[in-house]
Write a structure and sequence with these properties.
four-stranded mixed beta sheet, 7 helices, 10% strand, alpha+beta
Length: 304
């Protein structure tokens, strides 16, 4: 059987490949690479039509019912790729160092000309522990917990994500550790903020562990996310992405604790981005599973 590989934008035929019914899409990509040596499998995307989803590497040619001799695969070059785990570790490690640079430079006159040699106050110490602790948790989750459905992403995402996380971390730390930093008006506010933050962090970790257990190692199996015995995972009854819900809660708590503009802005911008991700995942769940819970929302219980 012959398959034509066409440019996804122009429709122009680029090459023709001989395939068998037992070949997988990954096998087709390997044959394509022999003709175009600058490519590699994760850089290649095939679609049966421009409106359809990309074909998965494990799909067999013989299992595609509409495929006949001379059928067309629409090809898109996804560009240089990099591993998801590599990007996550880079974007989550940077904030640790960015935050600590300003934390330990509190009495550095060329960074803080107004410093008077005062030690860190309790809120500044708590903020450092919370912020750095969050990203240490994220690095460890990337290494030991997360199971990625896709191996790679465009390398441009590395620079975009690192700029976002490292930049916000620097701004947040600079103002929290500033000699003129204004403390929250009451200790009660500090305790409330810290409690909200810890609640969100525990919930976030709990749901990440639950997601891990839903996907067997080495597979791309997808199931309907359901609660387990952990009370924090009961939120799966209400939303598709409770991990995002809990993360936003964490940053709201951090904002209450620190009472700074950039902490609040980070919570707002991050929450908006996570909502977009959650809505996309929620739509995919509903398309994939006909029995998906109808009353479940994407990220905000009962609302959205």
């Amino acid at each position: 059987m012959k398959i034509e590989i066409a440019n996804g934008k122009t429709g122009k035929t680029l090459l023709t490949l001989d395939v068998t019914k037992t070949d997988t899409i990954l096998d087709v990509k390997k044959k394509h690479i022999k003709e175009k040596t600058y490519l590699y499998p994760s850089r290649i995307c095939y679609k049966l039509s421009l409106k359809e989803k990309a074909l998965s590497d494990d799909v067999k040619i013989g299992d595609i019912e509409t495929l006949t001799d001379g059928s067309v695969f629409y090809f898109k070059d996804l560009g240089p790729q990099i591993g998801w785990a590599t990007v996550f570790i880079a974007e989550y490690t940077g904030p640790i160092f960015a935050y600590l640079i300003f934390y330990f430079s509190k009495n550095c006159s060329w960074i803080y000309p107004d410093n008077q040699g005062a030690p860190h106050n309790t809120v500044q110490n708590l903020a450092c522990a919370c912020y750095v602790g969050h990203y240490i948790k994220r690095v460890l989750e990337t290494i030991f917990i997360h199971r990625f459905s896709k191996a790679t992403m465009p390398i441009n995402n590395l620079f975009k994500n690192c700029t976002y996380y490292w930049g916000f971390s620097s701004l947040i730390s600079y103002f929290i550790n500033h000699p003129l930093y204004t403390l929250p008006s009451t200790d009660t506010q500090v305790y409330i903020g810290l409690s909200i933050y810890l609640f969100g962090e525990i919930g976030n970790l709990s749901t990440h562990l639950a997601f891990k257990n839903m996907r067997p190692p080495g597979t791309k199996t997808r199931v309907i996310p359901m609660p387990n015995g952990n009370p924090f995972c009961a939120l799966f009854n209400l939303v598709s992405c409770p991990n995002y819900t809990y993360e936003v809660i964490s940053w709201v708590g951090f904002t209450v604790l620190t009472q700074t503009f950039f902490s609040g802005l980070f919570a707002l911008v991050g929450g908006g981005q996570m909502l977009q991700w959650a809505l996309g995942k929620h739509r995919n769940y509903k398309k994939e599973f006909k029995d998906y819970p109808k009353n479940r929302k994407a990220m905000i219980p009962f609302i959205l």
